Amino acid sequence: MEKLSLKRELSGNSYPGRGIVIGRSEDGTKAVIAYFIMGRSENSRNRIFVEDGQGIRTQAYDPAKLSDPSLIIYAPVRVLGNKTIVTNGDQTDTIYEGMDRQLTFEQSLRSRTFEPDAPNYTPRISGILHIEDGRYNYAMSILKSNNGCPDSCQRFTFAYENPAAGEGRFIHTYMGDGDPLQSFEGEPKRVGIFGSIDEFTALVWGSLNKENQVSLFVRYIDIADGSYETRIVNKHEQK
Fold this sequence. Notes:
By secondary structure, this protein is mostly beta strands. The chain has one domain: Glutamine Phosphoribosylpyrophosphate, subunit 1, domain 1 (4-Layer Sandwich), CATH 3.60.20. Helix content is 15%, strand content 41%. It has five helices and 13 strands. The chain has helices at 6-11, 42-45, 91-100, 105-108, 197-207, and strands at residues 19-24, 30-38, 47-52, 55-60, 77-80, 83-87, 124-132, 135-146, 149-161, 167-172, 189-192, 213-222, 228-234. A hairpin with a 2-residue loop joins strand 5 (77-80) and strand 6 (83-87). The chain is globular, with a radius of gyration of 17 Å.
């Protein structure tokens, strides 16, 4: 698979929806995560990311304008020991609770399907990073409708052992803007990862459509000792 430009993939799509990038830093020492959310409605755009322990959660920027918390208020990132979970919905908790009971990532998601937001039936995208004793691997999942038919859930899991330095995988909810929105197709895209955490954060945020961008989370985790740095960008908090 050709290595794509993440900047080009983002800037060329006005509405990828919510997206996850997982990979390895250019120098090979850090595991990299990025998770972004976008919005077209006032309710979807009325959100920020806030830190919550080792993870994050979404929060209404203006509580008075929160018309429907379902599907938009959740914990996108949680940490379970040496595992970091990132998702686009409340399946973060499903994975956390399942793996805490010794289920696998894939087994934990068996109880979930795509989101009940007809006619879009937004896919549930998820990722899990495992760092232990200087070793690093990750997996990604998408649960999606059968081409917009809610009678069938398609389940795909992709696992990446000892990922290469300077590259990652990118999965997002929608192929582009539309009505209804078309679900992501194919396996996660192979993309390049370059620069420091601040440079990478700036690249991702700066490549998202200015009208639809809402929030971005980026984390670099040291593969040797598990320490990490986090960056959060919220459109509502920018001057």
